[in-house]
């Protein structure tokens, strides 16, 4: 695998141009996909054969990798190129015809588009609700308990 031993702003995996409006979404998507898989920037860099500052650049400064790195990124993260690049209308389908499950799947995919603090808040809330339901504290339609 090729390595990126040059300056992170001029390395082999760096883009020749930078278009901020198109790349801000890419950086957020890349960060979210990496974190969902519990990978550090260093883990991802090693899997791609590049340096950690290059991954940081892609995530925070609006850079988009060259095609060969994009291909490896999609493979390492287990997503399609359309998902990695955020191409509209190309989201992974849920293998069920249940409308409720499909609505929920769509919402979870939209979660990847939120800023990281919002993602964490939603996941924290969901985890708390699941834990509470698992203990049988409330029925599905009961109002939340009143706080004293």
Topology:
Layout: H1 20-36, H2 41-48, H3 52-60, H4 67-77, H5 81-85, H6 99-111, H7 116-134
Helix pairs in contact: 2-3
Description:
The protein has 7 helices and no strands. The protein is an all-alpha fold and 148 residues long. The chain has a domain of 66 residues: lambda repressor-like DNA-binding domains (434 Repressor (Amino-terminal Domain)), CATH 1.10.260.40. Helix 2 packs across helix 3. The longest helix is centred in the last third of the chain and has 19 residues. It is globular.
Q: Class of the domain at 20-85 in CATH?
A: Mainly Alpha
Estimated radius of gyration: 19 Å
* CATH superfamily descriptor of the domain at 20-85: lambda repressor-like DNA-binding domains
Q: Give the number of DSSP strands.
A: 0
Output the helix-strand order.
HHHHHHH
Low-confidence stretches: 1-24
Total number of helices: 7
- Percent range for helical residues? 55-70%
Summarize the entry for a quick read.
By secondary structure, the chain is mostly helical.
Structural features:
mainly alpha; 148 residues; 434 Repressor (Amino-terminal Domain); disordered N terminus; 7 helices
């Amino acid at each position: 695998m090729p390595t990126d031993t040059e300056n992170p702003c001029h390395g082999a995996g760096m883009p020749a141009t930078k278009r901020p409006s198109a790349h801000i979404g890419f950086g957020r998507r890349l960060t979210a996909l990496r974190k969902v898989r519990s990978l550090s920037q260093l883990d991802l860099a090693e899997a791609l054969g590049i340096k950690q500052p290059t991954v940081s650049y892609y995530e925070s400064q609006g850079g988009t990798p060259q095609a060969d790195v994009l291909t490896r990124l999609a493979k390492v993260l287990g997503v399609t190129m359309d998902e990695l690049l955020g191409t509209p209308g190309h989201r992974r389908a849920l293998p069920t015809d249940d409308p409720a499950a499909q609505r929920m799947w769509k919402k979870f995919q939209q979660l990847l588009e939120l800023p990281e603090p919002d993602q964490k808040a939603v996941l924290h809330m969901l985890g708390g609700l699941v834990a509470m339901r698992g203990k049988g504290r409330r029925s599905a339609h009961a109002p939340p308990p009143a706080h004293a």
